[in-house]
């Protein structure tokens, strides 16, 4: 995986991709949080671009939802 810096713009793009995954699968925030073993508050923070998931969670999201960490982080 790349070692690029995460910018403010990247955070918003990551937020949008995480929300896109959740909405495409028709999960509410509580269901999505349960699948990822985090609080609904964490999901809200991620989707608002206030925080980003740690690398372990990025990899888990990618694995569960059949995408790549690179796509989640950089849109690639």
UniProtKB/TrEMBL annotation:
A Gene Ontology molecular function term of the record: DNA binding
Domain (HTH cro/C1-type) ranges: 18-72
Top-level taxon of the source organism: Bacteria
Protein name per its UniProtKB record: Helix-turn-helix transcriptional regulator
Organism listed in the record: Staphylococcus epidermidis
């Amino acid at each position: 995986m790349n070692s690029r810096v995460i910018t403010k713009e990247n955070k918003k793009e990551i937020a949008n991709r995480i929300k896109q995954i959740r909405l495409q699968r028709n999960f509410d925030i509580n269901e999505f949080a349960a699948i990822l073993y985090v609080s609904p508050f964490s999901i809200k923070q991620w989707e608002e671009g206030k925080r980003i998931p740690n690398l372990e969670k990025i990899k888990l999201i990618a694995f569960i939802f059949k995408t790549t960490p690179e796509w989640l982080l950089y849109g690639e």
